[in-house]
Each structure stands twice: as C-alpha cells, then as structure tokens.
Amino acid sequence: MRTNMRTKIQKLRPWQHLFHSRRPKGPLFFFCYHKCGTVLLSKTLRRICDRFGWRFVQTYGRCESLPSKYDVVLFSHSETTPEIMRKMYKGIHVIRDPRDVIVSGYLYHSRCNEPWCINTDLEPSGEVDFPKVPFIKSTATREEIESYLKFLSNKSYQENLKARDFDEGFIFEMEGYSGWTIKSMAEWDYTNADVLELKFEDMLANYDQTFSDIFDWLDLTQKQQTIALELASLEDYSKMSNEQKKANPHISSTRISKWAGYFKDVHKEKFQELFGTVLVKLGYEKDNNW
C-alpha cells in the first residue's frame, strides 16, 4: 500500500496574536467528500481559524498521520486511520445525495482544469502518484491503480467524458470518481457518537441554522459562535451575487438538488447495479422505487 497523501497547513501570521481566541477543548475534525461541500467548508474554516489564531490542516487522499500541532482538520475525502479516529475530538461529517454527487461530478469534471482530471501521462510503470491518479486513489494498491489507468483507455479522465455521449459519459462518471465517493460514504461508520452527521442539502437549505448547530456541537463560546457565523455567511450561495456565482467554478447550479433532471431509466438501472440500496442507507429514499 502506498502511504502518500497531501496536507496543507495554514500557518499563523505575525499579527494573529491580536485576535487570539480560546482554543478548542480538543481537535475539531471535519469529514467531507469531493463535490460534497469541501470547498465551502475549506474557505469557511480557513477564515475562522485565521480570525481566531487557530491552526488549520486540510488533508487530501487517505490521511495516515497528522502534524504535531493543529486545532482544526478537514479530511477532504473522509479517509484516515483507525488510530486517528480513536483520538479525542469533536467531529462533523457531511454527506450528499449520491445522485447529485454524480451530476455535480459529471458537470465539473467535464470542464475543470484539475491536474489529475486532465492528465494524459498514463504510464503505469514506476512510482504512480498525483496527478497521474487523483488523491482519492493515491493510496490504492498497485493492482487498483493499474485498473484505474486501464479504465481511462489512454485518455485523460476529462477526455473520456467529452468523447462519450451524455448517457455513456454519465455512466463513466458513475463508475469513476463519483462511484468511489459513493462507496466511501456507504462504508462510513454512522454510529460514532463523537461525530455530528449532516447532509449537504440541509446545509444549503438552512444555512445559518446548520452552521449554528455545527458551532454549538463543537462547543465554541457564544462570542466565537457569533464571529464564526458571520464568517461562514460569506460562503452562503443564497447571499452571493450572480457575478460571484459565475466566478466560482464549483457552482454549476444554485439548485440544491438537480439529479431528477439528469437521471434516465438506464442511469437508474446502472446506479442500483453499482450501489444497491445506498440511498436507503443514507436516508435519501425509503426504498429503491424512486
């Protein structure tokens, strides 16, 4: 198994001691997934930590170790070790309707310029790391990595989407990145009493209340909550101007859920073949007759 992962640490600036705020009683962990609010949370948490003088860490791929000093950690793919999960912490875990994960992934990966998505160096020999494979695959076994590179058929991930008609491209995304995300969400331990479970849809529909619940769960003081809510509101889509929305490459639509406008019978059949009753498990449907 490869153990590579990428970590970004926000360093304190010289003037931050002027705004230093009481540190959390323990580390605060945020668990997210690609196309499930990661960018929103990253921007919000960086602002809050910058304001309070807290150290913020964001990890990509499977996180197998953390720096010695940190206050807030955002696990971009919710993948880490049992040892880290056994630490004393307060956590937030955000999921999204798997069908909208696929729609958002398909639209974004068809136009984005992320290095892994447009990479055309698909030679499987030697060390295979990002951007030859996305972070979510960077700790996979050699066999899994070679299977992924074969899956690309000598074209970049994005070229694969563009070379197919919509139906085939949509299924490619379902079997690709979005599929990995959905399986990861399905495998998550939803019984962890240290983690507050949230849905991305609820976060967008009840933005202020959801973040108020988050900061209350994390035991922030009343003063900290007031400041944190003001900073979090800067990423509220409903309060953004049209210019701000157009300038954000991660926003393809302001509709909270749009899967119904994309899924055809062929997609539904493939979805159920790949993921079974995941929608029931995650609380998005009562049964598979959707």
Describe the structure.
By secondary structure, this protein is of the alpha/beta class. It has two domains: 6-96 and 188-243, no CATH class; 99-184 and 254-281, no CATH class. The protein is 42% helix and 10% strand. It is built from 14 helices and six strands. It has a six-stranded mixed sheet. The longest helix has 15 residues, at 38-52. The chain is globular and about 55 Å long. Residues 12-18 have low confidence and may be disordered.
Distance linking N and C termini = 39 Å
User: Could you estimate the helical fraction of the residues in percent?
Assistant: 40-55%
Q: What string gives the helices and strands in order?
A: EEHEEHEHHHHHHEHHHHHH
The main sheet comes to: 6 strands, mixed
Oligomer: single chain
Report strand order across the widest sheet: 1-3-4-2-5-6
Radius of gyration over all CA atoms, rounded: 19 Å
Mean pLDDT: 89
Overall, the morphology is globular
**Poorly predicted parts:** 12-18
Number of strands: 6
Domain tally: 2
Work out the strand percent: 5-15%
Q: Structural class from helices and strands?
A: alpha/beta
* Count of alpha/pi helices: 14
